[in-house]
Every structure is written in structure tokens, then in C-alpha cells.
Write a structure and sequence with these properties.
The protein is 43% helix and 13% strand. With 113 residues, the protein is α+β, with helices and mostly antiparallel strands.
């Protein structure tokens, strides 16, 4: 009988190594620990719940509400688009537009149901 498990034990997650020693992930290259170590943000969605296992932007933990996730994701998308550019006014403007678009989309979706 094979007692092999694929469950992730959150208590074993160690930021210095990225992922606990009792866990592993199939099919993602051998340098996952290095990738997590250098990542600004590491997310997991488990059963529809957002779990932030690493976040250099601030908030981390499990069961993150949607109203907290929206500004975080808009910041991530803005940073991706502007990369190392220091155009703060443009970045903030785009961030606010993305947030507004997400909120409008969610509101319209709920109203149409």
C-alpha cells in the first residue's frame, strides 16, 4: 500500500526555503524553492480560498477577502506593465482604473444573476 500524500502542510512552509521539507509538487521544475525565495508574491487558491504564502507587498495569510485582493492584484498588474519605470502618477492612475474595472465587473456580474 502506498502512503504517499500530496497535501500541503502550511506549518512547514519556511520562507528561507520557500516550501516545507515534507511537501513536494509534481511537474514544476527542480528550482521551485529558488523561485519562491526570489518571488515578490506567492499565491495559492485552495477550494476557492485565496492563500498568500509570501507577499513582499505586505499582507499574507489565508482566507483573504475579495475587497483586499482587488487592490493587491491591480498593483501587481500595474507593476508588471510598468516594470522598473518610476512614472508614479501613471502607475497610480492605471492601478485605480484596474481596481475600478474589477469592481464594476464583479458588481455587474452579481446584478445580472
Amino acid at each position: 500500500m502506498n502512503n504517499h500524500t500530496h497535501e500541503i502542510n502550511y506549518s512547514n512552509i519556511n520562507p528561507s526555503y520557500g516550501i516545507g521539507s515534507n511537501t513536494h509538487i509534481h511537474g514544476i521544475g527542480g528550482d521551485l524553492r529558488s523561485q519562491l525565495l526570489h518571488a515578490d508574491l506567492a499565491l495559492m487558491i485552495v477550494n476557492g480560498e485565496l492563500n498568500i504564502i509570501k507577499n513582499r507587498y505586505g499582507l499574507h495569510g489565508s482566507h483573504i477577502p475579495v475587497n483586499v485582493a482587488i487592490p493587491m492584484f491591480s498593483k501587481v498588474l500595474t507593476d508588471m506593465l510598468f516594470k522598473n519605470n518610476d512614472l508614479k502618477m501613471f502607475k497610480e492612475g492605471l492601478k485605480k482604473q484596474i481596481e475600478s474595472a474589477i469592481k464594476t465587473t464583479i458588481k455587474n456580474f452579481h446584478e445580472s444573476r
